[in-house]
Specification:
293 residues, Alpha-Beta Plaits, four-stranded antiparallel β-sheet, elongated
């Protein structure tokens, strides 16, 4: 496969992922969230209000709000808000109204707790799949980035302000404080699910070992645990002695094996263990980073 063919194949796969993600998100919205007046914020939150107050189709409403935001995003940030964002916006709107208006499918539940949990999960899964396809859904994403650019809020704070503001408005409009609480739960669930999809459900561990017996420790890790080890020169400033710092990444189930090796070889060795979410390289799962080209 030539480089041009590889790029074309990858782009085609991205567009398919965005369509699948849009269908999952639309299912979460129309089978769980919107009929129960629950939202994770963003444009879908405003669409939920208009859906119940004026009976406006949620898909058309989201499209009508997202298109101006998309144009604004292109003007402010350039072509990074390109065709894939528009592709996602259109398909989410289409699938939402296909479920509700064309096929008139009923909600899966009228229990707000079940709607909050399952709707949040589906919303997170759909958004995660779209991000895997290097796309976005517009809406609050664009507003948050504009706040970051012109008002110097961090992106994290910008997302929280936009989504929380819309959720509070929903609670005021529907005169129900419980809805605010349900919406916040849905927002947290969807965010965590997105993180799990992007970073991976299982997390490897990075182990750092500082020991004078580094050579034996490294050899045993490579022979017994079957993981590569990197050594780096280091100096203990308290003792002013040169040592070697070992670094390796292992799976969760291999941590205790490595710690046992270190303890057997050097009980006074300094060891730290930290979480690793995104890995790429030989011997490990490959993760797709956001907006990777």
């Amino acid at each position: 496969m030539t480089e041009t063919e590889r790029i074309k194949y990858r782009n085609t796969l991205d567009y398919i992922k965005i369509v699948i993600g849009a269908l999952i998100m639309a299912s979460g919205l129309m089978f769980f969230l919107i009929p129960n007046k629950v939202s994770a914020g963003g444009v879908s939150g405003i669409a939920t209000i208009l859906y119940h107050v004026f009976q406006w189709p949620a898909g058309v409403t989201m499209l009508a709000m997202n298109i101006p935001l998309f144009i604004l995003g292109v003007k402010v940030f350039g072509r990074k808000f390109g065709i894939k964002t528009l592709w996602g916006i259109i398909w989410i709107s289409v699938f939402t109204d296909l479920i509700d208006v064309i096929f008139e499918l009923p909600p899966a539940t009228e229990d707000p707790i079940l709607a909050t949990v399952y709707g949040g999960v589906l919303l997170g899964v759909g958004l995660g799949v779209i991000m895997k396809g290097r796309g976005t859904t517009g809406g609050s994403d664009i507003l948050a980035r504009i706040m970051n650019k012109y008002f110097h809020f961090s992106l994290g704070h910008s997302f929280i302000l936009v989504d929380t503001g819309i959720i509070i408005i929903m609670g005021v409009v529907f005169r129900n404080i419980d809805l605010i609480l349900f919406c916040m739960i849905s927002l947290v669930i969807s965010s965590k699910v997105v993180d799990m999809l992007i970073e991976g459900i299982t997390s490897e561990k990075a182990i750092t070992i500082i020991s004078g017996k580094w050579e034996m420790i490294a050899r045993r890790i490579m022979e017994e645990v079957k993981r590569g080890v990197t050594s780096m020169g280091s100096v203990g400033l308290y003792t002013n002695k040169e040592k070697k710092t070992l670094y390796c990444v292992v799976s969760n189930r291999q941590i205790e094996h490595v710690r046992r090796i270190v303890k057997q070889e050097d009980a006074k060795a300094f060891v730290t263990v930290s979480n690793v979410s995104i890995l790429q390289g030989e011997g490990f799962r490959e993760q797709t980073t956001l907006n990777e080209e």
